[in-house]
Amino acid sequence: MKYKQIKEKFADEAGKAEKDHEVQMARGDLYKAAKYSIKLHDMMKNISETEGLEGWIQEKITKASDYLNTVFNHFDYKSKFNNSVNFVGETNPLPDMNKYGIYTTKSKDGDFQV
Hints:
114 residues; mainly alpha
């Protein structure tokens, strides 16, 4: 093997290892976030509404919550609607919308009616 081929193969393997490691790192970060959230929640039980929070503290909590909510909604959407019909004509099974309180029936012409 030439040096360039070895270098490229090594870079490919390193990329695979890093990609595998990203999931574990994210899970570790989520564990820490959950642990700190519980501790902060308990600490804030001693703070009255009249005392309030400094603006920067509230901002950081709101931002962290928003970021986690965004990631959760992304994965939640993918898990529920990955099998839906998309707009480029690919036909996949429709998700079960009954669990969301949306009851659909398929008409004779193939369209869905709510």
